[in-house]
Automatic annotation (TrEMBL):
Reactions catalysed, as given in the entry: 7,8-dihydroneopterin = 6-hydroxymethyl-7,8-dihydropterin + glycolaldehyde
Keyword Lyase carried by entry: yes
UniProt-recorded name of the protein: dihydroneopterin aldolase
Family to which this protein belongs: Belongs to the DHNA family.
Gene Ontology annotations for the cellular component aspect, listed alphabetically: cytoplasm
Class of this enzyme: lyase
Pathway entry: Cofactor biosynthesis; tetrahydrofolate biosynthesis; 2-amino-4-hydroxy-6-hydroxymethyl-7,8-dihydropteridine diphosphate from 7,8-dihydroneopterin triphosphate: step 3/4
Enzyme Commission identifier(s): 4.1.2.25
GO molecular function, one term: dihydroneopterin aldolase activity
Alphabetical keyword list: Folate biosynthesis, Lyase
A GO biological process held by the record: folic acid biosynthetic process
Organism: freshwater metagenome
Length: 120
């Protein structure tokens, strides 16, 4: 399917990481999503019930970022994908990118991210 809704830069503070200070102090994370679904029914009818409410999706992502800490951003991406596929049945496939721009890697960089793609 080629139709998708894109949400970019959903941001919140999370406490994910393997180091004690990451769990104690937290840091900013951001998430980009592509939600693949058939947008024709909503486009023809102008009916919100025939698409995905992206405000609800964004709120779900913020809850996952700020929720239970995980060691890896890979695990956070997976948790977000499970939540979206579970809560929004019109989504057939999604792409989740989790950004951790302040990761403690000891060298200068602009961003570290992981991207996963999951199908229903």
């Amino acid at each position: 399917m080629s139709d998708y809704i894109s949400l970019t830069g959903i941001s919140a503070v999370g406490f994910h990481g393997v180091f004690p200070d990451e769990r104690r102090d937290g840091q900013p994370f951001s998430v980009d999503l592509k939600l693949f679904l058939d947008l024709d029914p909503a486009g023809r009818s102008d009916d919100l019930n025939l698409t995905v409410n992206y405000a609800s999706v964004a709120a779900s992502v913020v809850e996952e970022i700020s929720g239970q800490p995980l060691d890896l951003i890979e695990a956070l991406a997976n948790r977000i994908s499970r939540r979206i596929l579970g809560d929004f049945p019109l989504v057939n496939q999604l792409e989740v990118t989790v950004h951790k721009p302040n990761a403690p890697v000891g060298v200068k960089f602009s961003d570290i991210s992981v991207t996963i793609v999951r199908d229903r």
